[in-house]
Design brief:
Blueprint lengths: L1 H12 L7 H32 L10 H6 L3 H32 L6 H13 L2 H11 L6 H7 L15 H26 L3 H9 L4 H12 L1 H16 L3 H7 L10 H10 L4 H26 L4
């Protein structure tokens, strides 16, 4: 009994040691990233919000926001941007996934083909946009010359209100799909080979393996790519500015180009910053919904 009482007394005297060193080191290494995030991400958003509240035209704090929803140009840009993203985001995801699956097969010159598909992502977007603009000329462009071989009339790719936005989608996708493909290839490589081999032994065909094993195990990479494409395409600016300037007839006037024009052509910074805040809120809301619906189920 005496020995047991002594042991109990010794255990009560032992106090947990406070681990201060590792915690301090953790915050020391993390602080530059937090500071960079605050300076380059959160502070500009806060500053944009403050500028949007200083509308000298209406004299009201939220006058710029009230003017947004009576502005035909903003409402048109909002409609064009939402329609643009509704089409291009799933399109880029599907093409990137198809290329990733294809480039994961044992094909001849596989590494060279991967490099060629990825190469557009390494070229400055302004350069590739100019090249596509030359190719899409309505009279002597390369694309119309190729269509002429099949006796198809010249198409006004960038000067038609019906075709211009879809032409911008083609340019943005040509640049983006190779980049997103590399992330999906990495996700495919993370799938254990033993799982695929076991499904083959059980008699599962290729399509059955793809929908029952590969796609469920690719949820995280697919979610990342979808979110990244959404953010990139909501902020798309270069092809519109270089090729169409929002035209023809406002058919390619994406919100980023509308913001640029309001800020630097019309010098209406409160109105432009109000649009920045609205664009940020819409993008964040869509990203949150995407994460919610694409998160792995237990």
């Amino acid at each position: 009994m005496t020995s047991s009482a002594q042991t109990t007394t010794q255990r009560e005297e032992i106090k947990p040691t406070k681990v201060r060193g590792p915690v301090l080191t953790f915050w020391l290494f993390l602080s530059p990233a937090i500071l960079l995030l605050l300076v380059t991400r959160l502070w500009p958003v806060l500053e944009a919000f403050m500028i949007s509240l200083s509308d000298p035209v209406s004299g009201s704090r939220f006058g710029a926001y009230a003017a947004l929803f009576t502005s035909e140009s903003f409402l048109n840009s909002l409609k064009v941007t939402l329609w643009f993203n509704l089409i291009i985001n799933p399109l880029q995801l599907l093409i990137s996934l198809g290329l990733a699956v294809l480039m994961s097969q044992n094909l001849p010159a596989q590494k060279i083909m991967r490099l060629m598909i990825f190469l557009p992502a390494a070229i400055p977007q302004s350069v590739s946009t100019v090249v596509w603009g030359i190719m899409m000329r309505p009279d002597d462009g390369l694309l119309n010359s190729m269509l002429g071989l099949f006796r198809i009339e010249n198409q006004p790719f960038l000067i038609s209100p019906e075709l211009a936005l879809y032409s911008i989608m083609v340019i943005a996708s040509w640049v983006g799909v190779g980049y997103w493909m590399m992330f999906l290839i990495a996700g495919l490589n993370d799938i254990p080979v033993s799982v695929i081999e076991a499904s083959k032994l059980d008699g599962a065909g290729w399509w059955q393996r793809f929908f029952s094993i590969i796609l469920p195990m690719m949820t995280r990479p697919l979610a990342f790519v979808l979110v990244a494409t959404t953010v990139a395409n909501f902020l798309l600016f270069v092809p519109v500015q270089v090729l169409t300037q929002g035209g023809p007839e406002g058919s390619t006037d994406l919100l980023m180009h509308q913001i640029y024009r309001q800020a630097y052509t019309y010098s209406d910074m409160p109105f432009a910053m109000a649009q920045v805040i609205v664009l940020t809120v819409i993008t964040l809301a869509i990203v949150v919904l995407q994460f919610r619906f694409l998160r792995p189920r237990a």
